[in-house]
Amino acid sequence: MVISYCKYGSSLHCVWLIIAKPESRIHLAFNDFDTEVNYDTLEVRDGRSYSSPLIGVYDGTQVPQFLISTSNYLYLLFTTDKSHSDIGFQIRYENHCLDPGIPVNGQRHGNDFYVGALVTFSCDSGYTLSDNEALECEPNFQWSRPLPSCEGKERRR
């Protein structure tokens, strides 16, 4: 999911409430960010309202690469002053790991990519799986190990 604000206007007061499945967390990534320093700000709060704990206030071009909520809610407030507009920002958010893929000559078992989810793999006939351990979607929204491969059995003469 993406929140974009390109060449934003003056005197804005925009609120986004991101809601994930219960027991999930939200991974917020800043793809682009360029606002007027000290005047146009994005507040990020860890919860569902303005009274939730403040994670950070961001302006200019200095933002973290990503943020992770502690609950299944993130509250974002973008405010601008009456002066000029700026380039803006693009933020991407996820509440799950990205699709780990499927090995060539293999299959994936499991299509749930939320934190704590497990996926396993098997190979077509004549191929052997390089790693039989399940992949787990970890709290940092990364898989616990690389995608295994399906290797062909060597033929003997």
From TrEMBL:
Transmembrane segments: none annotated. Residues 1-96 form the CUB domain. Residues 95-152 form the Sushi domain. Pfam families: CUB, Sushi. Disulfide bonds join 123-150. Keywords: Disulfide bond, Repeat, Signal, Sushi. InterPro entries: CUB_dom, SEZ6_CSMD_C4BPB_Regulators, Sperma_CUB_dom_sf, Sushi/SCR/CCP_sf, Sushi_SCR_CCP_dom. CDD domains: CCP, CUB. This is Uncharacterized protein.
